[in-house]
Design a protein that fits this description.
Elements lengths: L7 H10 L3 H4 L10 H19 L3 H7 L2 E3 L2 E3 L4 H10 L18 H35 L2 H13 L3 E5 L15 E5 L2 E12 L9 E7 L12 E6 L1 E3 L5 E4 L2 E6 L10 E6 L5 E5 L6 H37 L1 E4 L8 E3 L4 H33 L3 H38 L10 H8 L9 H13 L5 H18 L7 H25 L3 H37 L7 H19 L2 H17 L8
Parallel strand pairs: 3-6
Antiparallel strand pairs: 1-2, 4-5, 5-11, 5-12, 6-7, 7-12, 8-9, 10-11, 13-14
């Protein structure tokens, strides 16, 4: 099987040219984000990913997590790898220094999380959920919550989870039935939660569950949801662990993929009630949980990039090693590596281009979060949040995870029949990737969120602002001497016009027929994702052309070939992927009506 090699040059280029890391390092709070230091951090993270986590990926998939008598054991080597990860301080990167974090930008943490997910997605899920729990407690927890839990969750000594879903509720969080009854300074929690990632495991002594529940007099729906800290072990005043709380793992799910990650069914209060501590006020749980969910949605988008990268590397290695059939240009010659066959090259380049597009757009969104956090005044902060972070969070989550599935599927196809055989390893990436469009809100829910909350709610202004950003990049490409960017410019302009036209249609149509806008939401999100990815590639191609020009076009060395490849990859995307953005206009405007045409009995 192919080894994983972190694409650090690509990551560094995207951090510099799309996320503007050097400019970010000048903002308040990010002085430590010096590009040279970040280079060292990326290199060291790459070693852990490739040397420790990646070798456990396929064995962990075959073994899976094991549940016996309420105890969950992760596959051999996982616990030791987790302690290596924690002891090296990797869990602390983006968090508040007041509680033991390093305070590095989220975009840097995101780049490193890409490596963890590419190396071993099942392993990376534990830090991902803990990261969201830390963010939630940092934003909404009381001083006591922060003092008790944050230092150990930030180091990784303890981990955190999010407990939303119940068997009867699914994605309808307002239908949860878990109850919380006040009992002195705490509440007693009773109910069952499903799909709880790392709800029980053998990595740490304590697990801090964040649980949505309903108090007796709460109103129906999401307005009556409250949020509670429910630790596996209660914590004594001196910080030591007290008695076991009234909660347990009932079982773990048998899944299509991510076998090494325990997905738990959790029972609370079988013996009278699990002790839980209210976060903030009653009936504010959904608002608070969105802090964790939005963090997790960006992280899941990064998962899509990571698993796609791993699948691409695996397929690329196979394509260079597998000798089969003659070159179409040399019918009398010998059999050649399949990378010489045009359709295999098309598949590999489709994989490569979409990965680099999704990586760039994801890093840009994370950098927007950093800029919002560092903004000097509330108006600037809100503008950055609305125009960049809020607009692009559902796009990154949905489009990048769809890219992950598509790329992993192409990876199987490159292998041909061998891709369908588990021993080659290609199938695991497709099985693992398939969960990402489902959890943390299905991609259909992300599309509804984009259209209703991010576009229509703001009368389309954030989407039009992004279209203007694309147009500015087209102008920058026009100013680049000596580079053939005509097709890239044309497709970007067509995509920007499509985004503006469909945005206007959504805003005009919503009041009269919200079902039409709902039906159009997924193709609209795809339009924005494809266009955003093309914009990210255009920025990189423009920078590559500039750097080549500064070297008088001397592209014979490794750095020159890297820059040439950036330009060629962007042009391939412009010819083969970006036209789908302008074509999506019909799917948004006309497709909405035909989607609703059939009667129920006609399906």
């Amino acid at each position: 099987m192919a080894d994983y090699r972190p694409p650090i040059d690509d990551m560094r280029f995207a951090l510099r040219e799309v996320a503007a890391l050097e400019q970010l390092a000048t903002l308040d709070g990010f002085a430590e984000a010096d590009p040279q230091l970040i280079d060292q951090v990326l290199e060291e993270a790459g070693k852990l990913a490739s040397e420790v986590l990646a070798p456990l990926n396929h064995p962990g998939d075959r073994t899976g997590a094991v549940y016996e008598n309420g105890v969950v054991r992760t596959p051999e080597g996982f616990k030791e790898a987790y302690h290596t990860y924690v002891d090296a301080g990797w869990n602390t990167l983006p968090f508040d220094p007041d509680y033991g974090g390093q305070g590095l930008p989220w975009v840097v943490a995101g780049a490193i999380q890409e490596m963890w997910n590419a190396a071993n997605m099942s392993f990376a899920l534990c830090p991902l959920l803990n990261q969201g729990a830390v963010e939630l407690l940092t934003a909404h927890g009381s001083a006591e919550h922060k003092e008790t839990y944050l230092p150990r969750m930030i180091t990784g000594e303890w981990t955190g989870t999010m407990n939303l879903t119940e068997p009867q509720a699914g994605s309808d969080v307002g239908a949860v039935r878990t109850r919380a009854v006040k009992n002195g300074d705490h509440y007693l929690i009773q109910g069952q939660k499903i799909y709880i990632t790392y709800g029980e495991h053998d990595f740490t002594d304590n697990i801090v569950h964040l649980v949505l529940a309903r108090t007796p007099e709460a109103p129906e729906g999401t307005r009556g949801i409250s949020l509670f800290v429910v630790p596996k072990f209660l914590v004594n005043e001196d910080g030591s662990l007290g008695p076991k709380n009234d909660l347990r793992c009932v079982s773990i799910e048998h899944k299509l993929g991510i076998h090494a990650s325990p997905t738990c069914v959790m029972a609370y209060g079988d013996s009278g009630g699990a002790v839980g501590y209210l976060i903030g006020d009653e009936n504010q749980g959904m608002k608070q949980m969105f802090t964790m969910m939005n963090n997790a949605r960006l992280a899941v988008g990064i998962q899509g990039v990571g698993i796609a990268e791993r699948a691409y590397q695996h397929a690329r290695t196979y394509a260079f090693e597998r000798v089969q059939s003659r070159d179409v240009a040399e019918p009398a010659g010998n059999a050649v590596p399949i990378v010489r066959h045009p359709d295999v090259r098309r598949m590999l380049l489709t994989m490569k281009a979409q990965i680099e597009a999704a990586r760039g757009l994801s890093y840009y969104a994370l950098a927007g979060l950093d800029r919002a956090n560092a903004a000097g005044d509330e108006k600037a902060r809100q503008q950055q949040l609305v125009d960049t972070v809020e607009l692009l969070t559902p796009v990154v989550k949905a489009w990048a995870t769809d890219v992950g599935v598509e790329v992993a599927s192409l990876g199987v196809q490159v292998h041909g029949g061998m891709g369908f055989i588990e021993e080659t390893g290609a199938a695991q990436y497709l099985r693992d990737a398939r969960i990402a469009p489902i959890y943390e809100g299905t991609n259909g829910i992300q599309a509804l969120d984009l259209v209703n909350r991010k576009v229509i709610r703001h009368r389309g202004f954030p989407a039009r602002s992004f279209a203007a950003t694309v147009r500015r990049e087209v102008e920058a490409l026009e100013a680049q001497p000596g580079a053939d960017f005509a097709d890239l410019r044309g497709e970007l302009l067509a995509g920007a016009e499509a985004l503006e036209a469909t945005t206007d249609w959504l805003v005009e149509t919503w009041a009269a027929d919200p079902r039409k806008t709902a039906a159009a939401s997924t193709p609209y999100l795809r339009l924005l994702g494809i266009l955003g990815g093309g914009w990210a590639l255009a920025r990189q191609a423009n920078a590559a052309a500039r750097d080549l020009a500064a070297e008088d076009g001397a592209a014979a060395n490794g750095a020159g070939r890297f820059l040439e490849a950036k330009i060629k990859t962007a042009r391939f995307y412009a010819d083969n992927v970006l036209p789908q953005a302008s074509a999506a206009t019909a799917a948004v405007i006309r497709g909405a009506a035909t989607t609703l045409d059939l009667d129920d009995a006609e399906f």
